[in-house]
Amino acid sequence: MEKEVTIYDLAHKLEISPATVSRALQDHPAISKKTKKKIFELAEEMGYRTNNFARNLRNKNTNTIGVIVPRLDSYFMSTVIAGIENTAGNLGYQIIISQSSEQVKKEASSANTLFNSRVDGLLVSLAYDTEDLSHFDIFLKKKVPIIFFDRVTDYDGCMNILIDNRKAANEATRHLIQQGCRRLVHLTAIPKRNVYIDRLEGFKQALEEAGLPYSEDQVIIDNLSQEAGVRAAEIISKMKPLPDGVFVSNDNCATVCMITLKKMGIRIPEDIAFVGFNNDPVCKVAEPNLTTINYPGYEMGQVAARSLISHLSGAVNIHATTAITLRADLIVRASSMRIKSS
Amino acid sequence: MEKEVTIYDLAHKLEISPATVSRALQDHPAISKKTKKKIFELAEEMGYRTNNFARNLRNKNTNTIGVIVPRLDSYFMSTVIAGIENTAGNLGYQIIISQSSEQVKKEASSANTLFNSRVDGLLVSLAYDTEDLSHFDIFLKKKVPIIFFDRVTDYDGCMNILIDNRKAANEATRHLIQQGCRRLVHLTAIPKRNVYIDRLEGFKQALEEAGLPYSEDQVIIDNLSQEAGVRAAEIISKMKPLPDGVFVSNDNCATVCMITLKKMGIRIPEDIAFVGFNNDPVCKVAEPNLTTINYPGYEMGQVAARSLISHLSGAVNIHATTAITLRADLIVRASSMRIKSS
User: Which of A57-66, B10-19, B36-45 has the lowest mean pLDDT?
Assistant: First the structure.
């Protein structure tokens, strides 16, 4: 690699003092616009790089935020990351991204790497099976703030950013009941993390409020992939009596389950009504279009980044806030419209 | 922030020499396992951080790769990033991600920020309207390697990682012709970037090879969103005679266009056959399932990261390679199957 260009090189070339160059590069008002322009142009021409590294070493901050997500290749998560990047970028922060691939071991190793990179703060959506959180202890010891989003936890006063999954699931289930469904099924992932635990609770709660019975047979647990949608359709088609409403924790799985049932001759929504979760683009492709919960991923990313950076800049102390709950509304489409007037 | 823990603190506490601590932390074979264990445990307990920053300042590398993409919230791009993160992570590199939001101005500012962060290399998929590439000049001046992927360009010997878009489009169009289609339409984005230019070329070429006429009316230009799919359906439904085959540059747009035409009473594939591009999950939700080109995003991300890191480690000189072309095959599904035996 070539020798790094310094302010002394710029000063020498322009025959001015290094102090003037330094002040100009910091946009100091004492330096004339004309001089600044000259210096900026030469800096660019010579490939001068502001010494972020040396400066960070002094300032003890890196203007970077670490982000750990379970997986990057999901539509929902990609919208969250787009929101984080947008807000962080506008506020002068960069993001370093890592995926745990749903494994606590990889999550711990990502946390460790980000810690050693001295990120100023951390945004985390937990892996599926993370129970022990001790890999985050090093951050708290150093007072590096952590905010959890979507897949959250109760961890030593850290802020959570989430939606009210229980309420959303309750609303989804209640909607199915209002549409005349009486034999309901919930298709979801193992209720280990808050998102799945709370959705199952909301489902049960809505049944109870409507005076409908609940048994464990009404819950199908799988990994919410497209393949899981096919598997669930096979289970559902063999249930006696046939269920008349299905609430699924994920749109992608819901739509595939729905079209697999259609191929077996089951009518949607007349025989079985469907509600999904997230409001992925896939909802508008499915026939009938899928009723779902609108999960505001982009806004969640923006709020997470803004909260963390406000804390870092000293404007707000996130430890005073336990959680920020974002609005998540039911979007009614044809897959659940059994009563035509609704 | 608290005072940083140093190897001297660890040495003092354990009553051993700083040199022993330093060697143990570097896993030097001269230090016994027992001593290493003692030191590692204390390092963790006291929150010692390997001084990556100071070390990077000496080594002149940061073990980070900058990534600039047009937008983060697309399924295809999220699979590429997942592939980059996976390979980079395994090879000890972190990724810093930035999105240009399809604007050359934002792309230039992202490039500048990443340059000042001293990324070791850059992976770029260009914004829609980037023509002037001078914002990348500073990298080349400093010999910081750049690799372009998907949306590539011819820029001063930089390596491109791409698929053969012309060949893929030719194959898609030829497939439609083999299925008996004669009045073909191509729905795509403004042919400014390689991906859209090459797909249009491949479309035209296949028509020519089959002895079919081509006119500009056969190309519908829009932004490939779901809404663009609805708009295109309206245009197509009014064409006289009705086209009998549509090749779309994006699955999401293709599926919405297809179901909008179906609602108008047009049969797919009997009246109009469809082929999309990317192999997004949406293909398997659409009815009929969408024939498409399988664009291997995850593999593209892996290859991009591996090529860049091989170059950085001195194993391979990427400047000796102009381009790596990945395999992209046609996946035939029901949306184009007019001849049942094929």
Answer: A57-66
Looking at the fold, whether B27 and B110 belong to one and the same domain comes out as: no
pLDDT digit string (tens) for B72-106? 988 999 999 999 999 999 998 999 999 999 999 99
pLDDT score at B341: 57
Higher pLDDT, A53 or B214: B214
Instruction: Give the span between the Cα atoms of B45 and A165, in whole angstroms.
Output: 36
Pick the residue from chain A with its C-alpha nearest to B89: A98
Burial class (CB in 10 A: 0-12, 13-18, 19+), A199: buried
Q: Is the dihedral of CA B188, B192, B193, B197 positive or negative?
A: positive
The alpha carbon dihedral of A231, A233, A238, A241 has a sign of: positive
Q: Is residue B184 domain-resident? A: yes
B73-97 burial, b if ≥16 CB within 10 A, otherwise e?
bbbbbbbbbbbbbbbbbebebbbbb
Give CA–CA dist A223/A226, Å, rounded: 9
Measured distance CA(B247)–CA(B266) in Å, rounded:
16
Please give, rounded to a whole number of angstroms, the shortest distance from the CA of B30 to a CA of chain A.
25
Within 10 A of B282 (CB to CB), how many other CB atoms are there?
30
Minimum Cα–Cα distance from A112: chain B residue: B49
In this complex, do B285 and A95 lie within 8 Å of one another by their Cβ atoms? no
Q: E strands of chain A, at which residues? A: 64-69, 94-99, 121-124, 146-149, 159-163, 184-188, 219-221, 245-248, 273-275, 292-293, 323-326, 330-331
- Residue B186 is classified by DSSP as E
Domain that holds residue A41: 7-50
Q: How far apart are CA A203 and CA A168, in angstroms?
A: 9
Q: How many CB atoms within 10 Å of residue A257?
A: 31
Both B305 and B281 in a single domain? no
Interface of B with A in 109-168 (CB under 8 A): 110, 113-118, 138, 141-143
A155 φ, ψ to 5°? -140, 100
Asked if pLDDT for residue B282 goes beyond 50, the answer is yes
Strands A64-69 and A245-248: what pairing?
A: unpaired
Instruction: Supply the angle between the helices A18-25 and A33-46 in degrees, to the nearest 10.
Output: 90
CATH of the domain at A18: 1.10.260.40
* Token reading at B338: 């007019």
**In this structure, is residue B109 part of a structural domain?**
yes
Percent above pLDDT 90 for chain A: 69
pLDDT in tens, A261-290: 999 999 999 999 999 999 999 999 999 999
In-domain check, residue B80: yes
Indicate if B321 and B173 belong to the same structural domain.
no
Residues A240 and A188 in one domain: yes
Give yes or no: residues A279 and A315 share one domain. no
Contact A284/B at CB under 8 A: yes
Which of A10-14, A173-177, A203-207, A247-251 bottoms out in mean pLDDT, i.e. has the lowest?
A: A10-14
Query: Residue B55: inside a domain, yes or no?
Result: no
Q: How many domains does chain A have?
A: 3
Contacts of A131 (CB under 8 A, 6+ apart): A104
B58 touches chain A (CB under 8 A): no
- Which residues in chain B touch residue A73, judged by CB atoms under 8 angstroms apart? 75, 78-79, 81-82, 298
At B233 the three-state DSSP class reads: helix
Report pLDDT digits (tens) over B95-146: 999 999 999 999 999 999 899 888 999 999 999 889 999 999 999 998 999 9
Q: Mind listing the pLDDT tens digit for each residue in B258-280?
A: 999 999 999 999 999 999 999 99
- All residues at 6 or more sequence positions from B163 whose CB lies less than 8 Å from its CB, including other chains: B295, B296, B300, B325, B326, B327, B328
Together in a domain, A252 and A140: no
- Give the model's confidence band at A58: pLDDT under 50 very low, under 70 low, under 90 confident, else very high: very low
